Each structure stands twice: as structure tokens, then as C-alpha cells.
Structures
1.
Amino acid sequence: MPELPEVETMRLQLKRFLVGHDIASVEVKNRKTFQGDENKILNSKVMGVRRFGKVLVIDLANGYSILTHVKLTGQFIYRGPNLPKPQELSKKVTGGVPGPHTLVIFNLDRNGTLYYNDVRRFGWIRIEKTEDVEKEKFIIKLGPEPHVAESSAGQALLTLDLFKEILSKTSRAVKVVLMDQEKMGGVGNIYANDALWLSKVNPKTPAKSLDPKSVKKLYEAIITVLKAGIKYGGASELAFVTPDGTEGNYQNHTLVYGHEGEPCERCHKARINKFFLSGRGTYSCPFCQK
Ligand SMILES: [Zn+2]
């Protein structure tokens, strides 16, 4: 599932491509994917794109917003005058655009088009009044998020003090706590693995038994890996593509995630070990993450 860096990458590109476009018409091919009345968003200009956790909010000039969560396999693909140059479509866009998996088409002015493809159809798009967006339950429930990108209004900031407090209250394995989206937002499996390796913390350590120095290192490591994720346009595992139709590149720059059996690049004294923790693939160096 896309994590913070992937969704932030989508936000940055959608903002670059869509702001200034008017929505001319909307073709809804699958009613289950699209909730609300598409007529409410016609002939209105895109003003901005915000992110709340993994939800993107496209704000329009007429007081309505388009909310969307791409879940496992949703893809937004833009074609039109704001693309710097025509990009070859990623092979991860199954069936192309428009194609058999295109569920919604936003026809924009100036020959622009925004396609929504979704093979598994878990993602959703919803039309809502802009003033109601921040009253949404999922936004109120969002855990605080580290400051790695333009902050989203309404979402609390994960400060070092707050991070310490969250960890000090539980004896669950630290990696499991990092990935608990109600405790803190933004850290999914890939980035949790990399942040723990970078800070030399054993993923199984009970959260409250971490010493203050390790907590600080881990906090800083989370920010470092999330920023790297955004820099590389996210990780294109499974179906993730960027709105320009290409792929993110973080999967080629992971520190420990996916490196099972390879020598640890830092200590060169052990090979990366893979095991499962709460059902998720966990990678660590048995020497430097004791
Ligand atoms: Zn090592």
C-alpha cells in the first residue's frame, strides 16, 4: 500500500499538473468507486491539493473538494499540457489509459485528462463541500505525523517529545508501534525497516525499554528515510505509479528493506536477516541491530 512518501509524491505532481485546470466533464465507469454528485464539480477550477495521511483532497474554486484514497492499486494518471514532456506510460498501468481498469475520467479544459485506474477497486473518490473535509472522522482520528513535507492543515505534528511519550507507554515491539497509524502517521513497512536499521535499533525491542539516545536517533532516522522516499518519488512496489505515468524509485535506494541475505552495508560483519513481525516482513542486521 502506498505510504506517506508515495502519497506526498502524488500530491506534489497532482498539484503541479491540475492547478489552474477547469473540470469540463466527468465520466464515471464504476459507481462504487465514485461517491457523490459529479455535477457539483463541473466548470470549476482546481485551486490546490492537500494531503491528510493517505487521503488526498483536491480543492476547487466553487467550494467543493474531491477526496480520494487510492488504497492498494489505485492510480491517477494525468495527460495534458502541464506535463513537461510526454512520458512513456509505466507497465504497471495495467491496460493503459483509458483501458479496462479505468474507472473514472476527469476531462479537463485545454485537452487535459485525469484518469483513475484501479485493478482491485478498493480505492475511492468522493465529492464533498470543502468546509466539511476537516470534519471527516478519518481526519480527526489521524495520528500525528513527522514534519517531512508541507504540513497538512489539521494534522498534529509528531515532535520528538510526543514520539518519546508514545513509545514510553507501550511494551509492544518498537516496529509495530511505528506502523500503528492511530499512534503516528506516515511510517509504513518499508520506511519502518529502513529507519530502524539506520538508527541501529532492533525492531523487536519493547518500545518503552528504548533509551533516550536511541529514541532520538530513531526519530531522526524516520525523518531521513521519509524525506529520501519523497526525493525518489516514492517506492513503486506493486501498482504504485506517479501521476506523470512513470514510477517512483525509492525501491532502488532502500537501506535494508528487501536486502535479505545480503551483507550489511554498514558493518560488513553479518548478513541481513528477514523474519515476520506482526505478519509483516522485517529486515535487520543481527550485528548492528542487537
Ligand atoms: Zn550491520
2.
Amino acid sequence: MRLKDKVAVVTGAASGIGRATAVLFAQEGARVLAVDLKPFEIEGVSGIETLDHDVSAPDAPEAVIGGAIKRFGQLDILMNNAGVSLGAPIEEFPDEYWDRTMAVNVTAHFKLAKAAIPHLKKSSAGRIINVASVMAEGTDYGLAAYCAAKAGVAGLTRNLALELGRYGITANYILPGAIQTGMTVNFDDPKIADIWARKSPLKRLGQPIDIARGALFLASDEGGFVTGHGLNLDGGLMLRV
Ligand SMILES: NC(=O)c1ccc[n+]([C@@H]2O[C@H](COP(=O)([O-])OP(=O)(O)OC[C@H]3O[C@@H](n4cnc5c(N)ncnc54)[C@H](O)[C@@H]3O)[C@@H](O)[C@H]2O)c1
């Protein structure tokens, strides 16, 4: 029960990494507001309430952060995880892909974090956990906006850590590697899955629970002296150049 008496918001929680994290946080005693675009349910675990909301909508800070306060009366942990991956070759890259990627993958992180600050200041151990990607540091074909947004998450998080440390709030970001989720449906093709699995020294794809466990460390008392850190959870994917 490492998150007993804590309240967490997890975005992008209908699927993949967000869902696994919402479940793990609740199993560790937190009350969780799980947020995603469309109505969804997470069954079999107590302590989770769901909210369907677009994190990039203008009213998202009020709906999401205000919604958590209305339901639970406090906020201790914000996990900005919702993300999209819209790819195209750079010469044809649609402006709409750029705008949507920035809005969901980095601007929403900023706006929700800003709205959360007054509540995290009241917590005995406020936590911001932003989900970036190994693509914050590397790149791949077609991922101009995704890489720019994820690098932005890293920079934003370092600043949050610097400015909020005086309130006992930590801010860290996670760099997942190749994780089997709704975003990586191409891993359903065994050949593609195998290519990505082989790139990692551990010779397997990551699972959502691998990321959720890292998030739990950052959210819990054990992670209390870690701030401004980018935590690679990639099975060693980024070791080789
Ligand atoms: N899967 C990977 O290999 C991988 C690698 C690195 C980083 N990531 C990051 O991990 C995070 C979670 O992705 P995932 O892999 O679990 O994918 P996923 O598609 O399974 O889950 C992402 C969830 O975010 C939700 N979402 C998207 N836009 C939203 C919005 N505007 N408002 C609210 N919810 C929204 C989706 O509906 C979905 O349920 C993302 O930020 C992604 O960039 C994933």
C-alpha cells in the first residue's frame, strides 16, 4: 500500500501504459481519477473513477484537475500520460498532425501541471510524472512532431522540478522504449515485434506494467529524492549508437 491516502490523476488511462498505471496505483491504495477521450471502464479494482475528457480541450485543466478535487478533495500525483503518434515524412508533414501532437503530447502536460500546482503544494509529497519517450532523445522516420513534443516534455519537466522543488513537489519524466500497447498496434505483426524486441539487450518488448512499476517508484516515498530526472524504461534499447 505504497500510495495509501494518496489521490492520483492518470491521463490516457483507457489503454496501455495509463491503464496499467491507474490499476497499479489503485492496488497500492491510491484513489485514482482515470482520464481518457471516450467513456470507459476499469473493472475489478476499487478506488478508480473514470472521466471522459480530451486533455487538450480548453476546459481540460478545470475538468480534470478540478474534477479530481471535486471527487476526492485533494491531489498528490499527476501522471500526464495521454499521447498520440501521428507520423508522416517531413516534406509532407501535415500542419494538423503537428498541432494535434503538440496540443496533446506537451501543451496538455503544461496546462494540467500548472492547474495542479496549488493542490500539489498542499500535499505532503506532491508528484508530477510526465510520460515522454526514448524519442525525446532519439528519432525515427516520420516522427518530427512526436520527437519535438517528447523533447519538450523533458525540458518542461526539468523546469517544473526546478521551480517546484521548494514546495516538496518532485517532477520527473519517463522515457519508455518499445512497449506493447494500443499505440504500437504494428507489434501485432510478429516480424515487426521481433525487430523491436531484438533491439533491446533484454530481447523483449516492454509491457505496460513495466512502465507502471517505474511510475509507482516515482510516485511513492521511495522516489522522494528523485526530481528533474528522465527515467529510461526501455530494456536498454538506447544503449547502442
Ligand atoms: N507504446 C510505446 O512504445 C511508447 C513508447 C514511448 C512513449 N510512449 C508514450 O506512452 C504514453 C501512453 O501511450 P501508450 O503506448 O499506452 O498508447 P495507448 O494508445 O495504448 O494509450 C494512449 C491513450 O491516450 C489516450 N488519448 C489520446 N489522446 C488523448 C486526449 N487528447 N485526451 C485524453 N486521452 C487521450 C488514448 O485514447 C489512449 O487510450 C504516450 O504518451 C506515448 O507517447 C509509448
